[in-house]
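Per reviewer request, we include the raw input and output of the structure prediction for the construct analysed in the revised manuscript.
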Amino acid sequence: MSLTGGNRNDVTQLLPLLDKVPAVAGTVGRPRRRPDALLADRGYDHDKYRRLLWARGIRPVIAERGHPYGSGLGIFRYVVERTIAWLHGFRRLRIRWERRDDIHEAFLGLATCLITHRHVRRLC
């Protein structure tokens, strides 16, 4: 994971983020290093990024600007937005107080563990 300033545009970090996707094990054979498709909102709607994704063998599923809402991506985006809301429940992550990114990432990992523990506890 890479931390950037809050004033950076998200689309500038799209390709570096895809480069850091770890190998996914599971089926027999070579582990997968990239997703089949990338779901994104209107902020990523640009022909340049669509071409770069196709060149990497990734199908872009990006909402288009100027088209009415209701593309169906909201169903999948809800999971991401909900998870970010859970992380913002931890005050230390809502506003980044730490100057060192390794400490911030440690708190992020701790928050993820606590969120997972709460959900597993509900299942048992």
